[in-house]
Amino acid sequence: MSASLTGTRPLLHTTMKHDGRLFAPWILIASVLAGSSVLVYPWVFPTEAERAFLTTTVGANPALGLIFGPAFDLSTPDGFTAWRSLALGGFLAALGAIFAVIRATRGQEDSGQAELLASGVLGRSSRLLTGVAIALIGSIAMGVVAGGLTIALGGQVESSMLLGATFTATGWMFGAVAAVAAQIGSDARTANSIAVAVLGSLFVLRGFLYSIEAPSWTSWVNPLAWMTETRPASGNHWWPLALAVGFTAVALVVAFTLEARRDFGQGTIKPGPGPSRGKDRSTLKLAARLSRGPFITWSIAFVAFGFVFGFLAKSVPDLFASDPTIQKVLAAGATSADELVAAFLVTILSMVGIIASISGVQTMIKVRTEEMADRVEPVLATAVARPRYFGSNVIVAFMGPTVLVLIAGTVIAALASGADLGVTFGDTFAQAVAVVPAVWTVVALSAAIIGARPKVILAAWLGVLVSFGLTLLGPTFGLDDWVLGVSPFWHVPHTGAANPDYSGLLWVSLVTLGFLAVGFAGFRRRDLAR
Amino acid sequence: MADDGAVITIEGLTKSYGKFRALNGIDMHVERGTVHGFLGPNGAGKSTTIRVLLGLLRADAGTVRLLDADPWHDVVELHRRLAYVPGDVSLWPGMTGGEAIDLLGTLRGGLDDARRADLVERFELDPTKRGRQYSKGNRQKVAIVAALASDAELLILDEPTSGLDPLMEQVFQQVIGEAMSRGATVLLSSHIMSELETLADRMSIIRDGVIVETGTLDDLRARARTTVHATLTTTPSAAELSMLHDVNVDGRRLAATVDSARIGEAMSVLTAHGLTALTVEPPSLESLFLRLYDGENGTGNAP
What we know:
- The structure holds 2 protein chains of 2 kinds.
- Helices cover 75% and strands 0% of the residues of chain A.
- By secondary structure, chain A is mainly alpha-helical.
- In chain B, the strands form 3 sheets. Chain B has a 6-stranded mixed beta sheet with strand order 5-6-7-3-8-9, sandwiched between helices.
- In chain B, helix 6 (166-181) links the parallel strand 6 and strand 7.
- The radius of gyration of chain B is 23 Å and the shape is elongated.
- Chain A binds chain B through residues 110, 187, 189, 271, 273-283, 286, 289-290, 293, 373-375, 377-386, 525, 527-528, 530, and chain B through 47, 51, 54-58, 75-77, 79-80, 82-84, 86, 88-96, 98-104, 106-109, 127-130, 132-133, 143, 146, 156.
């Protein structure tokens, strides 16, 4: 072992012990996603006819392809499992790996832990190697657990193992991407944003290119598409995994080279001097300022989402025309092209809303992060009442996603109304506005958690998770309406319908008020963390 | 203000975190216009007490009055009149020191621009650096400037000078002196003896969540033990030396400590044994604190 890696073993051992369990939720969610699919499929779609209908509806809704990627074969449980969990499971593995690497590198440099470690008998690359090792090991664990569980629940051995292997490979690649990002950004937040932005763009790009049936060479420039091309249960190609290993190796070499050249605590992007006097002099401005960086990133992403979804909407008529099964359904009068378009628009705008709510939940979680970092203490030691501090953050957490939904909604509406879809700009934009109250409910749940029970901070994500699961995955499971109704997005009215029913929004908003009341009451009463 | 001129009145304050009892019946009074030193070993409950005073933690039992108001209920009115410097200042990583000073100052109800500029200059603070670039001492300066740039009646300072160099420590003492001349009352938690000796009028010592000693520096000194080194011609018996503590006899040489009130008694015993050499050291602040911190022979109301 070279001198620059001295001390990696004990450091890895301790880090595994303390931070290793942080990988567990990612492993759990991905495994449940894969395992549940293989388990429910025969139960929800017992007959050939139902399986064929599933294939048609999925094919008719390009919005689903955007998230899940192409459906190669939905007529078998394993094909369904692969379609439903490959993209998302890989995404989760990548997030877990990114956070693990950044936490063990930049995160420690920010908190000062790293300095303590670096002064000990520790090579200069040991911390990076430790972070990378955690990501690699965690990804392997995720692949083994998810694959193993799927096999145990009745999945075919080879395709389930391959599915698990794609999780591992995705985790590896993005662990390595994060290792590079950690050298570029000069603090944990910047480094995280860089790595997650790369992941997010490649993810959307993959879905988009498959949905518009782009030329096949486009699959080979996107590492995430390599994973799709393994085609578990509909071909079982193992060799794209070799590309992933190669990508990981190259990115790691880059990361370690950059690491060896940079100064401790510094990055490629360096901060300059700032203003000596402050303009932000209220808690509202403080909250807005702390969310500003992420908000700018989100806004850019939502302009991009708008274009991606908008172009998809434009291609809907072509897709309908080219798909004989849809033609047959339309000819039988079971549904009309307008209804399919309307359903499509509701789905994508709900998806926009769910993704936007993530930024609101982040803002609320920031309240807790600030509290744990002792930065709320000096603010509340001034003449600021707790409800005002909390309220300022709630306002920002509500306004941010609202603006994001409207940004994407405007772009989608402009593109959709320009296409030959029979929808107007006003209809589509109104649909985007109708999604906003549901977004607020999801954010309000996180406000309730942060205000009243911050110890279970992970529950703040519950709203996003439930909405995502029920709105996008629920219908393919054939769940009952009362279950689907748990998601606030289920209550979003179809504004294009003849008599839109707005009463759902009223109930959803009452729930929002309830959550907020819990959050405010909790934040006023509880002890603040030191 | 309060009937007895007290700015801070704490009686029987208890606070637990889960099963751990951090404060176990604190009593403390801080008079208007004084600097009250607040000290004790790490983890004794100083910061917890201060956080109760700031309304950040809710008292489990006992009464706490601050400027004749309730720190938990009257937060906003109270905080307009007090300023706080934490011991471990954490700044917003992307915000400059100058921006943080203006934000915190304005949130408290406005700051005095002239005094702000003066303090920035005297503390040699660069207000254009970002929070993440400051060293510990410089983060501390940001908090001190933010707190002192307005006219607060009460300053609550939790180890405010940790990380400051001796020059800045001196500036800090001057600045506190100026605040005193404006009529401010100060609660000063500190481990720096010279700082307390210069500034504090009275002090309270906390250990294991209880105030074990309170009074002026002279009161504390009087209650502390004097160190005696003596050379004798005959060896006294153990019974004769019962008023001495920490006795160490090495042949004819004796070293011991004695309560200040019993020095006379001790002298007469030692004289009877043929005293040939004698040094008597009055209790130093350090030795006083060490004894109190150590928990050996406190005033008896420890749990």
